[in-house]
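so my prof wants the structure for this chain in the tokens format not the other one, which i didnt know existed until like an hour ago. anyway here's the sequence
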Amino acid sequence: MKTCRLIPALLMWCASTLVAQSPSTGSIGASVTPPPPPPVCNASALPNVNQLALLRWYGANMVSTFPIGGRPNGLVFDGQNIWAVGGPTNSVSKIRANDGAVLGTFPVGNIPGYAAFDGSNIWVTNLLDNTVSKLRASDGANLGTFPTGKFPWVIAFDGSSIWVADILDNAVSKIRPSDGATLGVFPAGPTPIGIAFDGQNLWVANQGGPGNTVTKLRASDGATLGTFTVGSNPVGVTFDGRSIWVTNSNSNSVTRLRPSDGKVTGTFAVGSSPQFIAFDGTNLWVSNLGSDNVTKLRDCDGAALGTFPAGQAPVGIAFDGVNVWTANNMDGSVSKL
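here's what i got, hopefully its the right format
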């Protein structure tokens, strides 16, 4: 078992204390049909209303970094606050988005990884406990700890269910938010590490094996709808309302896919060892663990709009409606761009 190669954040943890390919289907492999041309991009969109209200009309040319301790991995925004997983160790920090003040630190399980927000509660994966913790967002109260598969890491909410990527099971678990009951376990590819919801389906990045794939699962019943080849060592996945975007850690690139059939519609260069990716309504933001920075890509055509510094080894990334945040795994901090 090659546990310590799964993701760079785990590799770091493995180095300091112990530490960011699927079942074959007919969809695997490149099509002989060339991808469709990218959409024509109009002038850059104005900032959203929240950014304008705060006079945040400029790009990410100012960075604030807040120390929180530990080795933070995932970030999630609950509408008011940022939640950073793993800073400090085996806990989650609740951070006020407007000024970075830590509002509370709440214990969870052993080596927490990533988090999802279900509208009322924060769900956190606990890697070594094979569980997820449910915290009430208003006050951080622990509402329960529930079993998952082996090595749960990345997590997503589809509007009705919680989905967890179980690394060592090569599967994803579907969990009922009301009581934490497991509704099903469904095969993904080898070493599922990233997960995103497109409104109907789940997309899972499979980091293990030689395939370098993403798997598409129907959210209603977990049925596999296809497996599609992307770049080398895929990690993060996000949906922008039109396309699926996947970070390729070993290729230093991002792949864009068409959700209807998984066809690759573009591959775009980013920084070193890209991890996760966030969408701000207009642009994509990619955390580059190897180069300690963030790449901003224009959504319509993937054009690089800038590279901005973050903390040391940024992994998790989130957008709060105004600013982009990164979890900096190696210096125990979060950065606000």
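also thought this was worth mentioning. The two ends are 38 Å apart (CA to CA).
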